Amino acid sequence: MDSIRIQGGMALQGKVRVQGSKNASLPILAATLLVREESLIRNCPRIADVYSMVSLLKSLGCGVHWQETGIAVDSSQVCRCQMPREAVRGMRSSLCLLGALIGRCSEVVMEHPGGCVIGERPIDMHLSALEQMGVEFVEEEGSIRAFSDRLHGAVISLPFPSVGATENIVLAGVMAEGDTVLEGAAREPEVSALCAFLQQCGAWIEGVGSGRLVIHGGRRLYGTDFTVPADRIVAGTYLLSCIGTGGSVLLEQAPEEEMQSVLEAAAQMGARVCTSKEGIYVQAPGRPAAIELVTAPYPGFPTDLQSVVLAVETKGRGVSRIRETIFENRFRIVEELRKMGASVELCSPREASVKGVETLRGADLVARELRGGAALVAAGLMAEGETFVEGCAYIYRGYENIGRDFRELGARVASV
Ligand code: UD1
Predict the structure, then answer these.
(1) Substitution candidate for ligand 1 out of 21, 47, 326 with most atoms within 8 A of CB
(2) Rounded CA gap, 128 and 104, in Å?
(3) What sign results for the dihedral spanned by CA atoms 166, 169, 172, 177?
């Protein structure tokens, strides 16, 4: 079932429930390592990256059980500090186990982490911050050995608000001796969710949601029952797909507050957006208006939704300009969209000019990464005729069941 077949050309209509957040679930699951008791993490999405994190935790000695509403993790018996090679290679977010494990075991061996092929993705900020907290690193045949006799607080300033580095510093900081002051922290809602989980376990973190975090380390943590917030990127994918097809959709439980930049972009595209306690309701005009879009760290427009905007604007009224400032390789879908008759020009490796066309035609496409893959499915919904998207394993890393969700909205989509 690695392909998705889409019979396009229909406007999305109806309502769909938004799954729990992938990027919040993964560091929170890693954080359960610090607790030494049982925690229940509710609303984790059933996606490949969460399954990988669960098997990583199991391999380290945690008791992990899926329940109807969530995942119970008992980390009282962690017995290993070496992460299995394959699991780490496939998933960049296994990197947040580094901060958690160094807090728990004082020594960790891991492969250089993998992830989507959307850019170079170095880990220098993670390593340098942890070094300032007393961690030493030795590179050994493709793996990294990290150890620390005494993990201690530090004053750290990040040159760029890296989400993963911020999460690692928070995870190590809650276990360190003394205070960690982090300037230039990422403000993404997923960082705040991680902090909220740790606070619920008894950690003392100040400045949550701001660019300056103060983590008072060394407090005992207790098991807790925590609900992961809804996924703003999945909600945004469906909202933008609705605009691409000229439909009207209610996104149940979509996290409106975290989606302001996306809602602003939707308004610029000519969509009518209303929010209520049920979720976000979006009603699209025929073809979207062209826009100027620049991705930026939160609260700016998320890089994870840039490809979907690009796909939607292939049918825009006029010329859109889209600039990517976070990852250098996020325009890999352009050649696929051209197979559908899209008119996209790369002005530079980081900027695309999209001249909207009246119709896209169905084509055989290949997904090469998670969000780009979802964007190709959105393009398939907007096209006349049949589209096949191959390589959907990437999409299942982040979307529970994109085919089911689009079918709920009336689309003709099948996994094949
Ligand atoms: C996280 C998200 C990803 C999202 C990204 C930016 C998860 C699991 N993934 O990824 O979906 O697209 O945030 O919002 O939460 N960088 C360095 N050195 C480092 C670390 C990062 O140069 O040590 C660079 C990266 O190459 C990239 C930029 O900083 O250009 C942003 O990366 P970062 O915020 O760390 O993204 P991730 O945490 O990997």
Answers:
(1) 326
(2) 19
(3) negative
pTM exceeds 0.85, yes or no: yes
Residue 93 exposed, middle or buried by CB count within 10 Å (0-12, 13-18, 19+): buried
C-alpha torsion 330→332→333→336, nearest 10:
170
Q: Which of 116, 195, 201, 242 is catalytic?
A: 116
DSSP H or E stretch at residue 273: strand 272-276
Phi-psi region of 119 (alpha: psi -120 to 50; beta: other; left: phi over 0): left
- Ligand 1 pocket: which of 95, 160, 169 to mutate (most atoms within 8 A of CB): 160
Phi, psi of 89 (to 5 degrees): -60, -40
**What share of residues in the chain are helix, strand, coil (percent, to 5)?**
35, 25, 35
CA 153-109-328 angle, 5° bins = 80
Angle at 50 between CA 98 and CA 56, to 5 degrees: 45
The domains found in the chain, sorted by start residue, are 3-19+230-415 (3.65.10.10), 22-227 (3.65.10.10)
Which helix or strand (DSSP H or E) is residue 83 part of?
none
| Phi, psi at 398, each rounded to 5° | -130, -20
For the record, the structure tokens of 117 come out as 């092929």
DSSP category for residue 113: P
Q: Which residues line ligand 1 (CB under 6 A)?
A: 23, 26, 92-93, 119-126, 160, 162-165, 186, 188, 190, 303-304, 326-327
Closest CA to 311 of 236, 254, 416: 236
pLDDT, tens digit, 9 for 90 and up, residues 85-143: 766 666 667 788 889 999 888 888 887 765 555 456 688 899 999 999 999 999 887 78
Q: Which helix (H) or strand (E) holds 354?
A: strand 351-355
